[in-house]
Amino acid sequence: MPCQSVWHSCGESPHRRHRWGSRRISGASPFAPGFKTHANARGEAGGVVATGQNGRVCAVRLIPIHNDIVSSSWGMPGGISRALGWPETTDAQAELWLGAHPSAPARPIEANDFEALDEWEKQSGTTLPYLLKVLTAAHPLSLQAHPNPAQAAAGFAREEAAGIARTAFDRSYKDPYAKPELIVALNDGFQALCGFRPIAQTAAVLTQLAEIAPEPEPVRAFRELLTTEGLRNTVAFTLSRTADVQTLVAALVAADQVDGTIAPVIGIVQRAFPHDDGIALALLLNHLTLREGESLWLPAGNVHAYLHGSGIELMGPSDNVLRGGLTPKHIDEAELMNTLVFDEVADPRLQPIELADGVRTYRPASVPSGEGVPFELWEVTAQATLTLPSASIFVVTDGDFTLTLPGSEPPLAAGSEHHLARGSAHFLTDGAVATISGGGRMWVATAR
Ligand SMILES: [Zn+2]
């Protein structure tokens, strides 16, 4: 019996879940209650069989996938090809989407019983609660924030009811889902703006800039506004599109030309977006330079902009972006103000958790602002046994791995041993215990 027949006969998914489902899988079994693993006696591709509550079986499969690279003006020439060891190119490569989002779902490399992962979601009744991306940026991305689940659902319904086409310039909500995100730097020197810097720190920077500014008054006034009225009113001012903002930006740029070391973000942004109002907003944010393997956590309402570098990004399965500057795209100031969380963020880094030798996870749920976020990103660098809780997506950025699914004692069942070469991506259709050999750097998106 071919694999797809097994899948279709199942009629239910062992991991039926919603995008924000909080179902937890406990105990030693990697499978949900009601499911058990056993050897794949039929010798079909996959090697793991989950038995559904109806007693029928679904083969767990590992499927090579691919997608088209997303180009963008901020993309890094040949960046994704370099990150994945593909043939060199000079194209401005911004993102590679590895997920089921209908805007750009990943596809099986070989013919399968589904054309793309969004179709697999419909067939299986399963929703991947994440979207994995490889991102490479040569220039700053837009200043942006993403909605929480309630804001996303309400915003999507509102724009649908208003009859705004999903591809329209002024459409903000392309789907009804939240988009919290994390990013791990693939190289030293990944730069980003992330979260509001403590007010006292920004005030100190503004004091220094005012001391050297040819036109210090707008800088002093901005400092006064921030320290007396706080972040909300100060951000509202930066988004007001008034002449006063342009005067302030001109004063900041002139000060930066006197001494570019006080707030290097001014020069970085000025080179990409000369005299953009977003320069004033950018100055309120933490400016971080990550080392390889360091990570940022960007929960709902966090304002951020990646500036330069390569990273692996994992986020909610959404494309909902509220922009606040550094973009020719639509800026909806009112909706951005509704979405932003005006808290000071002392350190937006997400510390990984060691799971075993050669395996660690970047887990949003390990910090209070990530409570309820089901996805996490595993980094595998050496041989290991992975107990994957649910359908997962793999991408290899370095080295070479072999993945074996259980039930594949010699003689190996066809397809139960898989070669995961550098630059390849794979989709595991359900939770499984996978034995990994080889070494390098492999990323696994999964969810609990
Ligand atoms: Zn973002």
UniProtKB/TrEMBL annotation:
A Pfam family hit: PMI_typeI_cat
Reaction catalysis annotation: D-mannose 6-phosphate = D-fructose 6-phosphate
GO molecular function per UniProt: mannose-6-phosphate isomerase activity; zinc ion binding
Cofactors demanded by this protein: Zn(2+)
InterPro entries from the UniProt entry: Man6P_Isoase-1, Mannose-6-P_Isomerase, PMI_typeI_cat, RmlC-like_jellyroll, RmlC_Cupin_sf
Record carries keyword Cell membrane: no
Residues annotated as transmembrane: none
EC id: 5.3.1.8
Keyword tags: Isomerase, Metal-binding, Zinc
Gene Ontology annotations for the cellular component aspect, listed alphabetically: cytosol
Record bears the keyword Metal-binding: yes
GO biological process per UniProt: carbohydrate metabolic process; GDP-mannose biosynthetic process
Protein family according to the UniProt entry: Belongs to the mannose-6-phosphate isomerase type 1 family.
Matches recorded under NCBIfam families: manA
Record's protein name: mannose-6-phosphate isomerase
Gene name in the database record: manA
